[in-house]
Amino acid sequence: MKDASATAARTGAPPRSMGFLDTAALMRIKSLELRARVVVEGFLKGLHRSPYHGFSVEFSEYRQYVQGDDPRYIDWKVLARSDRVFIKKFEDETNLRCQLLVDNSRSMAYGSGEVTKAQYAATLAATLACFLMAQGDAVGLTTFDEKVDQHVPARNRPGHLRRVMLHLEKAPSGKGTDVSQPLAHVSELMTRRGILVLVSDLLAPLDTLETQLSYLSAAGHDVVVFQVMDPMELSFDFQKATHFRDLESGADLYVDPGVARAGYLKRLQAHLDALRRTCEKHGIEYHLLPTDRPLELMLHDFIVARRRVSLPARARNLSSGGGGKGGSTSNRNAA
Amino acid sequence: MNFLFPLYLLGAAAVIAPLLYHLRRRPPKEHLPFSSHMFLEKSPELLTRRSRLEHLLLLLLRCLAIALLALAFSRPFLRTEMPAVEVTGAARLLMLDTSASMRRAGLWEKAVEEAKAAIAKSGDGDLLALMTFDRQPSLKMSFEDWRSLPVEQRKERARQIVDGLKPGWASSDGGAALIQAAGIMDEVVSAGEQEGSRDRQIIVVSDFQEGLNLDALAGFAWPQDLAVEPRLLQPKDLDNFGLALVAAQADDEADEFEEEAASVSAGESELPGENIQVRVRNTRDSAVERFSLYWKDEPARGLKGGINPGASRILTAPPRTDPTKDGVLVMDGDSEDFDNLAYVTRLQPRPVRVLYHGEKVSETDTSSAFFYFSRAMQPTDTFEPTVSVHKKGTPAELQDIDFVVATASFAEAQLPALTRWVENGGTLLYAMREGDTGESLQGLTGLTGLKGSEAQVTEYAMLADLDFEHPLLLSFAKARVRDFTKVHFWKHRSLSWPETEDGKVVRVANFDDGQPAWLEVPRGKGKVLVFASSWAPSDSQLALSTKFVPLLYSAFRLAGYSASRPPLYYVGDVLQLPPGVASVTLPGGESRKVPAAGGSFAETSEPGIYTADTGTRVYSYAVNVAPSESRVSPMEMERLNELGVVLAATADGATGGAVAGESPEDTQRKQADRELEQHQRMWWWLLLAAGAILLVETWLAGRARRARPAADTSATVTAG
Question: Is the ipTM of this complex over 0.85?
Fold first, then answer.
């Protein structure tokens, strides 16, 4: 993080106002990596004001030994000092694997203001990657439109962040959005449990999406969905009747906003509600992100989500008795 | 406010167009990129329920412009300004065509009938004037004359005048007549007798033949409130051959008619010199084609032929027995005979004014060259020479001289004037006297290096190598008269010039010793004839020879003079008479005195041979009917319109104007309205206002169009 702050200082990153960085101002920074670092640094600088504490790979806890626990995890020193039997529990976070799924379809190229959804999504993904790798976690990237476009497996080694950034900087080129197929593909590729962060406008039918999300959730992955939407998509606050050109199909449609607004908002809300319900149903963290929302807040949401998710995950880890690959890794680390 | 054409106000209903235009919601042409159509539904493009007027200011301006245009076209005016008009009736000018073409059968009777009908139509308050026209318009009854008569006598008087008229022989100049008539009508108004609203009209009773000649109207701005009512007289038929003499021209222009004619019976001309050319013409709508052309006193020797309708040809007239008499050519075959005669005068001698320059000029001294020359210069049928002698030491008066004869050298100071005269077309005969070294000749001919010296003659010299094809000797070409051996030359001059000048000299004859005797040296447009020996008895026998007088007359012919006919005259032309004419005899035999100042005679009111007697000679002049009168096909009435003449309604309302069934009061009120509207010209200001509004509208619309694209198409799309 030292490096990141130093770079930001050298390049004269835009000053923060109201505590958060203006999204449009942030997007004026050409380098995606630098943008991500600015956000992460800003977030960490303001952390002391936060009532939450960051989640760390160093964090560990003890609990009382109960019958059936593996005696290898008994903390003998504690037992010697206090004559109490505690089990030493190492979290799996040190080897957290996070796969970022970023939508690269043409609809992401839309932006009513200075920021397109694609830019916002890329910065979001980059910020997460930067943040997680700074913690020593492994980060992977999968971009997709109707199918998987690029896949970078999660790793944590020098130069990997750079590779992720390069793929993120690619402009949207795909056609339609079909989340289910790439999700199915990713679930095949991700053999180890980890966090799956889906960044997309999710402007696609939800029929098969639910199935895939349930698979992933059932496979033990923590799934976080960031739905990126343009403020105009949410409000449809257009004034003049005109031909609206679909960025994905290229088709023109004459729409009088005055007439069509109510129907549009209604259908959009129904879509969003359905999506939210689906996520809730499968324990998936869902966030709707308008592109004018500061990215620090997104990071905050993410961490909060992680805290919420981590408890059941830990419970799962413990209940499985360190079974599975994650468990074995933890055990190895502890050894 | 009143309107001249209130129906145009209906045009204001066109404001509905911009209203509809503004109500209609046009789908915009721009495209707005959007992420997905997933939640969008197509809107209907024309929504009447939600339609609301957009761009109210623009709409208002557009409606206003249309309304103003409609208002302008309806020609509004304010009648409150209308001056009190005293309606006093119409002013009509009746014009009667009295040209030669009106002599056709039945035409004049119709003309009189039409004129009387027009007279009868005049009301008590109307004014009427009467005018005839052929090549000159002539006012027979002015508006003043009409006014001065008691009301009940006016029409009767006009009828009497018409009865006293008859068609003449002159050509017609309808254009000049109409212009004069317009002037007369203009004076009626400007006389200012509170007749501002008087309806003014010119009634033209004519056959409106093609030869009416309206050319003068082309440069005349016809008053727009002056209407002309043409009363076209239809002739019984339109068959007419025209016969006209053609002014002297080259022979080759004559049509080879004789060869084409189906039957031409003509004998050999006994006098091939008489080459009378005539133009025969057939009218467009003629039904006849065959004609015969002959001399009046020799009908048997004529030629017969045919000519297509509308065609015109130049023919050579048939030969006649005695061309030294005046004659009349007759053309037969058509139904109209007013233009079938062509009067031809006999050939008349050409006056030649000769200037003589020489030494020892004496009419009594037989040794003088002038003694013989003056005696040779007697008038003949061909020439009428008058000789004036150049006094030594004075500059030659050359402006009225046709021919110069010199038997002595000129002073050097006189040479430039003479040379100029020769170069401008004059002919000079220079006979070298003994001792002449050719200095004057060098100046006159321009031959540099020309020298003369006395030749050595043993006993006498004779002429040899005569060029009988040269015009000077052409009359001696026949074998009977070509013997020049009896002309002996005791002395002659020897002429020499550099070889380089050979091309400028034409040798006509040599002496038998090979020296040049007679030469022609062309110079500029004229020429110098050089005799290397004179006709004085000391030099030669030439003056005593029978060749002398013909030789001099040949020289005149070489100079371009010949017997001729007087110029062509048409009826109405002024005859140019020679000095000394006291009286002129008309074709009818009547004699008219010519004023002492004389010189011209203008009373050529009929075709025929006019003779003028000077006491010593009788001159004859042929006066013919103008060829334009033969073109009797009626002209197109549109021609009048093209020349800007306003045509009025004819009696049966054929050309518009007053609406049938409309009372005179209505017509006059409408006329007054028209004048009031023309005076106020409100339409002009309305048009101006409409134009200004449209300009503002254009500017506003342009601004709105520029502002529109920036408003909605602000979405950002990154290139894919």
Answer: no
